[in-house]
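Table 4 source record.
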Amino acid sequence: MDSDTHRSGTTLRVNGKPHTLVLDNRRVLLDVLRDDLDLTGAKKGCDHGQCGACTVLVDGRRVNSCLQLAVALDGCEVTTVEGLAGDGEELHPLQQAFLERDAFQCGYCTPGQICSAVAALAEAAAGHPSHVTDPAAPSGRPVPLDADEIRERLSGNLCRCGAYPRIVEAVEDVIR
């Protein structure tokens, strides 16, 4: 079998910049980000979609990049932790809050935690309920984020160091 039969031309917009790549159809987004684009914020933790260290945003929605085939994202906007702050030196409010609250210890999971928190805030603002959202809450209205909501919405991101209380506090700081 010809090696070109497993390759596709793919254009990804990563952190606002287009990248046209010829990729093996079996490569995952995480490996493309880290190996081809030198964006090493997203980490390879479990490589099974269970820890969330590889979380990035695709068209504003969080995904485990270790499970997402890169060629399936042709034309999509991918945002990594490196792209959250934009072009300036000023950090994204969540990045700043994580620093101010010391919401990390080793820092390995932090990029995934921050990307997940960005998406969680957007989901709540759009009225998407979580498992702990009050069933009596009006449908389609923004969901108020308390500590329980934040913990539930970030439950797919694991921290081996146990920095969860500070992570919740950092997210609370941003929504106040």
